[in-house]
Design brief:
Bound molecules: the ligand N[C@@H](CC=O)C(=O)O
Strand content: 5-15%
Helix content: 40-55%
Order of helices and strands: HEHEHEHEHEHEHEHEHHHH
Keywords: Lyase
CATH superfamily: Aldolase class I
InterPro entries: Aldolase_TIM, DapA-like
Number of helices: 12
Structural class: alpha/beta
CATH class: Alpha Beta
GO molecular function: 4-hydroxy-tetrahydrodipicolinate synthase activity
Protein name: 4-hydroxy-tetrahydrodipicolinate synthase
Number of strands: 8
Distance between the termini: 44 Å
CATH topology: TIM Barrel
């Protein structure tokens, strides 16, 4: 049985675009609150209907408590629902993640995006639910995917509002996870940057993607056109989005955060001095030009 708070989040996020936000930092790794504010508010102005902070795009696992508090509070101040990424650090204990969940609740988060764990994910989600009382989105991430029976069990948890599916290019796994969400009457959320349009046709009814960390209108158009059954527009918008995804969500895949930050700077959302991802891998020569060329052609 789904808990009322989880049902409310499920219904609130349905057909909404949640932007998985970056966390812009300067050369020393510090967040400037004004830069952050402007960035988050700009995403909302441009079509993000909810914000997911401190998830993978926001490099949540790398930020300390003070930075996490700042990011969550500034996101909540935008007035849109805020989903907070919790966990994701190697070797972390459930108690530590529960403490993050409690702080997220204190700062007014609407829900949690729970990074996957290998060891007893159901007990992990249950502990967060009892500690913080915030509804959760399970995170079926290609780097640490859930086995189908595990995901089915997670989706039966009363505090789980839905699942964000991010299986990258595994269409079968994506379809199975979306179907599992429907069977459990939970929200099927696409996190499929490279299979965005198709994942909507496979049953996703909401989106939470790093592709919307910049260039938000492109992603917003696809989701809106599909939700409104304007299928001609959906096909055109989807092709635009796929062109953008092809140059941003590509090998080395971890470079996508840097690529979205380049776009954010080019769009004037953040200063150039805050557009470096300290955790980016080495990127090929010409990558930035390629990304900006495609992003500018929309
Ligand atoms: N999975 C990413 C978003 C990518 O689409 C995140 O957690 O930020």
């Amino acid at each position: 049985m789904i808990a009322p708070a989880a049902a409310a989040l499920r219904d609130r996020l349905r057909w909404r675009l949640t932007a998985a936000t970056a966390t812009p930092v300067d050369a020393t790794g510090a967040v400037d609150p004004d830069v952050l504010d402007r960035y988050l508010r700009g995403l909302v102005t441009d079509g993000a209907e909810a914000l997911a902070v401190l998830a993978h795009t926001g490099r949540g696992p790398y930020h300390d408590e003070a930075t996490r508090d700042l990011v969550i509070s500034r996101a909540v101040a935008t007035g849109t629902p805020v989903i907070v990424g919790v966990g994701g650090r190697p070797g972390e204990r459930t108690d530590d993640v529960a403490a993050q969940a409690v702080r997220a609740a204190t700062f007014g988060a609407a829900g949690l995006l729970v990074f996957p764990v290998d060891d007893d994910p159901v007990a992990h989600h249950d502990a967060l639910w009892h500690a913080a009382g915030l509804p959760m989105l399970a995170f079926d991430l290609y780097l640490r995917p859930y086995a189908e029976p595990t995901l089915a069990e997670l989706l039966r948890h009363p505090g789980v509002a839905g699942v964000k599916v991010a299986r990258l290019h595994d269409a079968l796994a994506c379809q199975a996870a979306l179907a599992a969400a429907h069977r459990a009457d939970r929200l099927a959320v696409t996190g499929e940057d490279r299979m965005f349009g198709p994942s909507l046709m496979w049953g996703a009814e909401a989106a939470l993607v790093g592709l919307a960390a910049a260039a938000v209108p492109v992603t917003a158009r696809v989701l809106r056109a599909y939700a409104d059954k304007r299928y001609d527009e959906f096909v055109t918008a989807s092709a635009d989005l796929d062109r953008l995804a092809e140059v941003t969500f590509t090998e080395p895949m971890e470079g996508y955060v840097q690529r979205m930050l380049w776009i954010a700077a080019e769009e004037g959302r953040i200063p150039v001095g805050h557009a470096g991802d300290p955790h980016a891998p080495a990127l090929p020569d010409g990558d930035r030009d390629r990304v900006l060329r495609v992003a500018g052609r929309r």
